[in-house]
Amino acid sequence: MSTIDLVDLELRELLEQQPKLRLTSEKLQKSRTFILKNVKSTKETDSPDLSVSEIFVDSIFDAPPIRILAYVPTKSRRLLPTILHVHGGGFVMGVPEMKDSENRELASQLECAIFSVDYRLAPESPYPSALQDVFSVLIWLHSNARKLGLDGERIGLKGESGGGGIAAAVALYSRDMQGPPIAFQHLIYPMIDDRTAVRQDLHPYVGEFVWTQEHNLFGWQALLGRTPGSDGVSPYAAAARASDLSGLPPTFIAVGGLDLFFEENMFYANRLSRAGVPVEFHLYPGAYHGFQVATKARISKQATRDSYDALRRFLLG
Asked: Beta strand 50-57 with 66-73: parallel, antiparallel or unpaired?
C-alpha cells in the first residue's frame, strides 16, 4: 500500500527529485562518492564573524586521530555554549560537511561553538568505533573547555538519523562511565533501535520513502556485524535497548509521522519522560525521513524553528 496520499503536498515535490537510494555492499561506495561530490560543491567561505577550521583530536581508545570541523564565533566576549554534532548517514555514509551551511548558521545565530565529528563508518569500522570517536571528542572538549573559550557546563549533543542514534548512545555511555556531564541531547529522527530493522509488525504507513526497512537492515548489520534484533545488542549501539534511562540530560526529539523511526522515537520519548528526564517531542504529520532538506516547505520551516528554539533554550538557559 502506497502512503503517497498521506505525504505533505509540498514534500511530495521533493520526493520526485530525490535520487532513489539502494544500499548494498556493492553500491555503498558509490553512495558515499555521491555525497562527497555534492557537499564539495556547496562548501562556503568563512565569514568575518565565524572561524571554521579542521582539527584532529586524539582518541582515548588508541584509535586513529579523529577529524572534526569546528565552527567558532570570533567576536563573543563570553565562554561559548557548545554543540557536539554527529552527522547522519545510517552509520555507513556521510561527512561533517553535509551540515556545513546549517552549522554555520546555527553557530552565528545562537552564538555557540559547534564541533562536528568525522567519525569512523561501518562496516569497515563497526561498533563501537563511532561511539568511541564521539566520546573521545566529548572528553577533549571538556578537558580543554577554558582553553578553547567554551562553557564546560553547556556542552550538549546533537545528531540526525544515524548520528542521532550515536549521540543518544554517547549520552548513555557517558552517564554509565562517569564521563563528563552533558547539558542536553538534541535528536532529529534518531536511529536508536536495531529491532525496527527486523520487525514484522511495523506501522503500516511508515518507512516507504527515503529510508526504508531494507536500508535500515543494511545499516544495522553493518554497525553490529551481525543480524539486528538478536539478543545481547549493547545499548551503547542501540540506545533503545537501555533498561534504565534515568539521569540522562534534557532531551529534544523530532520525527515525521511517516518516518520509519516514528514509533521507536515516540517510545523512547515516553520512556525518557517516565524516567524523569525532561523531554520535548515533536511529530510532524505527512513527513518522511529527512524531510527537512525540503527547506522551502512550510512543515520543514516549522521543524527548523522548533529545533532552533529548543537549542536556544538548551544553550542559553
From this structure: antiparallel
Burial of 53 (0-12, 13-18, 19+ CB in 10 A): exposed
> How far is the C-alpha of 6 from the C-alpha of 209, rounded, in Å?
12
Q: For the whole prediction, is pTM greater than 0.90?
A: yes
pLDDT (0 to 100) of residue 47:
76
Helix extents (H) in the chain: 9-17, 28-42, 100-110, 129-143, 145-148, 162-176, 213-224, 262-274, 298-316
Task: Tell me which residue of 240, 252, 250, 241 sits closest to 276, measured CA to CA.
Answer: 250
Report helix, strand and coil shares of the chain as percent, to nearest 5: 40, 20, 40
Q: How many domains, the chain?
A: 1
Give the type of residue at 242: A
CA distance 100 to 52: 10
Residue ranges making up the domain that contains 72: 4-316
Catalytic residues: 161, 259, 289
- What residue type is 313 in one-letter code? R
> Domain containing 301 — which CATH number?
3.40.50.1820
Parts of the chain with a pLDDT under 50: none
By CB neighbour count within 10 A (0-12 exposed, 13-18 middle, 19+ buried), where does 113 fall? Answer: buried
pLDDT of residue 42: 53
| pLDDT tens, position by position, 211-232 | 999 999 999 999 999 999 999 9
Buried b (16+ CB within 10 A) or exposed e, 182-205: bbbbbbbbbbbbbebbbbeeeeee
Asked if the peptide bond before residue 128 counts as cis, ω within 30 degrees of 0, the response is yes
For residue 154, what are the contacts with CB-CB under 8 A and spacing of at least 6?
81, 82, 183, 314, 315, 317
> Which amino acid is located at 43 in the chain?
K
The CA-atom distances, in angstroms, between 310 and each of 23, 306, 317 are 33, 6, 10
